[in-house]
Amino acid sequence: MDDLKNEIDWSRYEAVLFDLDGVLTATAKIHSICWKRMFDAFLKRRAAERNESFEPFDADQDYKAYVDGRLRYDGVRFFLASRGIELPEGAVDDPPERETVCGLGNRKDAMVGEILAAEQVDVFEGSIRLVRWLLQQGIRTAVVSASKNCPAVLQAAGIAEMFEQRIDGHVAEALCLPGKPAPDTYLKAAEILGIAPEKAVVVEDAISGVQAGRAGGFGLVIGVDRHGDAERLADHGADIVVKDLGELVPETANPQEF
C-alpha cells in the first residue's frame, strides 16, 4: 500500500477534504486529555455514589473506539453506552456542571477552550506542505471536522485562509448532519464546493473518518497513521496510509515554490 502513494494521479481530483485534529494540527492530544479528565471525574463520582469500583476512561482504547473523530455529543453517547450508563439527553445550552449528555459534552468543550486559550496550536509541517502544493496545482481544499473549536484552532494555527470551506461541529449541528462514520459532513463539503465525491479526496487519522470517506464514495481516502494504526485504517477504508502527509508531495516539487 505504501508504494501507492507515489502513484497518485492528482490530476484526477479537484478537491482534498482534510480532517483537522491529528491531520493538520497537533490538537488531537488535547482532545484526548480533556475527554479523559471529564469522563474520569464523572465516573469516579458516579462510582463513589453507587459504592462501585472506579474504571477510568482509557485515553488510548476508549478514545479511539468511542470518541475520536465523532461529534462531541455522539462521543459522549457512544462511550456511556459502552459502560451501560444512561443519562438524559439535555439541551445544547446545558451548563457544564449538568449531568446530561449535552452537559458532559459541554464540560469537555470548556476544558478544550481553556487549553487553547493558554497554549500555542502547532501544525504538522508535512501536512501544510501538502496543502500549499495542492493549492499551487489548483486543487481546492476544505476542512471537515467534528470539533466546534475548529474556527479557533484554524485561526490560532494561522492556516484558516488556506481552506475554501469549513464544515465543523457548528455547521453539522445547524444542518442536522450526522457525524462520522456517517459520510454526511464530507458529502456536504463536496456539495458546497460543487464537486462530485469521486473527484474528491478525504484525508483522515481516525477510524471513523476513513469509514466516512469510504461510505461517501470518495475517489481516494488517505489515512494518516499518527498512533500505529496503519492496518486498522486500511481495514476500515483507507486506500493509502502514510506517516506524514509530506510524503505525498511529489519529489520533483520545488519546496521554495510553496
From TrEMBL:
One annotated GO molecular function: beta-phosphoglucomutase activity
EC number: 5.4.2.6
Pfam families reported in the protein's UniProt record: Hydrolase
Top-rank taxon: Bacteria
Keywords: Carbohydrate metabolism, Isomerase, Magnesium, Metal-binding, Phosphoprotein
Cofactor: Mg(2+)
Enzyme class, spelled out: isomerase
Reaction(s) catalysed by this chain's protein: beta-D-glucose 1-phosphate = beta-D-glucose 6-phosphate
Family: Belongs to the HAD-like hydrolase superfamily. CbbY/CbbZ/Gph/YieH family.
Designated name of the protein: Beta-phosphoglucomutase
Provenance organism: Geothermobacter hydrogeniphilus
